[in-house]
Amino acid sequence: IAPTTSQPPALRQIHHRDLSVDYYSKKCPQLENLVGSITSQRFKEVPISAPATIRLFFHDCFVEGCDGSILIETKKGSKKLAERDAYENKELREEGFESINKAKALVEYHCPSLVSCSDILAIAARDFIHLAGGPYYQVKKGRWDGKRSTATNVPPNIPRSNSTVDQLIKLFAFKGLTVEELVVLSGSHTIGFAHCKNFVGRLYNFKGTKRPDPTLDPRLLKELRMSCPFYGGSTGVVLPLDATTPFVFVNGYFTGLGSKMALLESDQAIFLDPRTKPIALEMARDKQRFLKAYGEAMDKMGSIGVKRGKKHGEIRTDCRVFL
Ligand code: HEM
Ligand SMILES: [Ca+2]
Question: Could you tell me what the cofactor note in this record states (predicted)?
């Protein structure tokens, strides 16, 4: 991953002071309840909305900052693709977008043209983390929605399943996040699923060796091969990122890393590199510490490249289209 040169300098800065917990306390005091009514209903009826929305928030914040740019749809017939149609975003689930659009519709009804899509996404991601058993943290608000969304901005800013720890550390540092925050945020993979194509490279011919990845547990390897054959597998198959508890937010992901249970090469790599391994071990050992660090790291991720004011931002009424 070549850290991008096409990003505005503002992205390097974390603008914590621009956001505040009570930003809407006068304009739309019931905001968190409105979003909360949608997220709790969705969690009951469509639980996959939880991992889908958490990942959506990550992919929003890492491209152009947390500005709702990921939510924009490509104009019909246009050759200029929006972010969500970039290759790296193809597997973002529809359930995440749907959750945000539903929450936005309810919020617009009660507080028209007042609340940004990017703030709704930040609140919904926190709600789903908490609903799944993760930490509850206060969400700072005051983000404005961005005015551009371009597919070509995506590849240098989103990590890949085979990114090296070196690449991950560099990319996260470029976003203002530390090595510890990289490890802690990777703990998001305690819930959710991955498609075969994101780990099939480990199962048969790992880096041209004609053998599987030696850092993969042999029993897990067998199971993964059954679901993901070398030839002719179905592109729709997904498997849990953390085989122990795919729907519960705990530190099982980190204990899994210790026993070669990671699905993604990048996740296993975090457990192998001397810079990240001690942190992963600590998170596996101390669940409370992980949950607290996770809330803090999400808060920080949520303030990457935040936009304020009419020059760079807008408050959309439909998250899928610019004003
Ligand atoms: C550290 C680098 C990271 C890499 C290389 C990475 C890569 C991936 C990949 C390849 C998938 C599977 C997608 C699929 O096949 O459908 C995935 C899923 C997921 N990622 Fe990450 N990710 C990283 C960090 C993060 C962070 C920081 C978050 C959240 C803050 C996150 C949240 C998720 C979630 C919740 C899923 C499950 C999505 C679902 O089930 O729909 N990831 N990630
Ligand atoms: Ca964005």
Answer: Binds 1 heme b (iron(II)-protoporphyrin IX) group per subunit.
